[in-house]
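Look over both lines before class:
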Amino acid sequence: MRRELFEFLNTDLQFIKGVGPVLATRFNDVLGGRRVLDFMLHTPAYIRARGITENVADANAGDIITIPLLVKSHRAGGTFRGHRRPTQITCADKMGNTVILQFFNVNFLDYWLKKLPIGEWRMVSGKLERNPRPTINHPDFIEEMQNANKIPSVQAIYPAGEGLTQKTFANVRDQIFNILPDKISGEPDDNVREFFDALRHVHYPETADDLSPNSPYVVKLAYWELLAHQTAIVISRRNRTDVRNHRTVRPKKYDLMGKFYAVLPFSMTGAQTRTLREIFADLARDVPMMRLVQGDVGSGKTIVALAAAVKMAESGAQTALLAPTDTLAQQHYAKIKPMCDKMGIVCDVLTGRDKGASRREKLVSLRSGRTKIVVGTHALFSDDVEYRDLGLVIVDEQHRFGVSQREALRAKGNNPDLLALSATPIPRTLSMTIYGDMDVSVINEKPAGRLPIITTKLPIARINELIARLRVQIDSGAKVFWVCPLVDESDTSNLTAVNARYDELQKIFPHAGLVHGQMDKKQRDAVMAKFADDNSDMRLLVATTVIEVGIDVPRATIIVIENAERFGLAALHQLRGRVGRGNLQSYCILLYGGNISEMGLKRLDVLTETDDGFAIAEQDLIMRGTGELLGTRQSGWINYHFVDYARHRDLFKLAAAAARDNVDITNDTWTRDLMFIFDRGVTIGA
């Protein structure tokens, strides 16, 4: 990629006119980065048509309209008889119909007097309400008539976050794509020009079809993204099998596996035993292991991971178990530490919370080799963390860590083995192309004594009946999860917010707890720990999907998922897996809204009919429609920018074949450019 273009794509968004450091930080929260390239890969979710009308009587409530209005009068907002009232601007359309423009930021009357002077025409665009008079609350656009063309007839709507408006997104987009032609002028590579042309079409859609997975522009971008990914796989496998990366097989020094089986409180399933045979065979080779263990929720992946760590400890080497969150790291540690103590293996936990003398003591123990198993978060590959002999890296919920993060931890040792764990099954039709650089083991059995979770669907209209039933169960000692899709109420969504539901349920269950992603992390972890405590009086936890992965509360036997029709099957299956982790009968109630579609009901039926995660994943791939689900992330899978698993299945095979056939990857400039664009984190030619 040409240097000037490369530098532009790497430019921090704060240097784009009108952004600055504060907005750049907000963009970082939404985009997962703050470069120009990060913005370009964050494409619109849908379009909003703004049809022009001159007669408000022709429009229906809820329509997005653009209409010329004559400003007639102002009424200042403020407090009246104890009630806040908005600022109201009374206008008339060309037919003489009254239209009210309403603003709830009541302290800005002077601004609106200037923006909407009495006696002048303005072009206004926004959502029409009738309550009962035609009203537009906080119009999206207000322009003088000579500037009416500044209001787009088709507006691209971006997934946004707090403090970021659609106008901000449009402004940044316009500036980036106005600068871009100068950066690629004279570019000889047709692929480069085609790539950015496709990106431009996606950022400036003219119809909804331009954003669909079958759009020729999206298909191009999806193929190139898959090519980058598949090339990373080819390079990773090539590097792993390169003779320069072969290592001496560690000899056995201690007999620990016998102790492991002796302290194991249950017998392993056949699938666990088979997976361990495959892992142990890998550990005995002179080529570093790269193995993915796929296991359904509750299938016993953690015990398999511990067995692998114990096997590594037999040679005197160390194991690092990397978890995505402090909570999950602490739970893993609490589960395996007692067993390690019985075997005489030193096990520790290291997270960002560890400070001062405690942290220094743990680092000394790792550096000396005394600590054989360490569980932690990204803190495990901090600069000051040194291992005496790191032999095995275990990555839990591996999709949450990029290649570069995994490699940073592996760099702490001398070609250590890598074992990745995934709690979300991936359809067998895709697993080999998504994780083609790894050998795959599947744990498809549940531990003995686990009862199937009874799953039922229930309309939201019967919520009072459900709460009455829950009261009986909670009084009998049951612990209950109640999951909502949103944190706060939204004007643009009728989905239930967790804060509002918590306020209602706390009146009935005064000891209920609340957790969501916007809470302080320590506070959230404290609430979860209290809920998990058998002696706590907290029996109901109201939460968002922050509990989706890794929360282990064996006493929890009921989970209610509200607005279940708005989640994908994989996410629902993950959430359901928060119960049924002990030997008690557990239940999952799928609460659905009155506007559920036929496809939404079919998805819920799949959950009620099976608990086979692989069957559910396959159905999810077949049935999933990108426009209907809450969010676009496919839980547990790679988070692509343009690839749609259901719509682009053929592209996986094409890209994999192209990557395999591209034998001289090092000298392929376009492929190297793609590796940079999609940040695959693999060093070419390493």
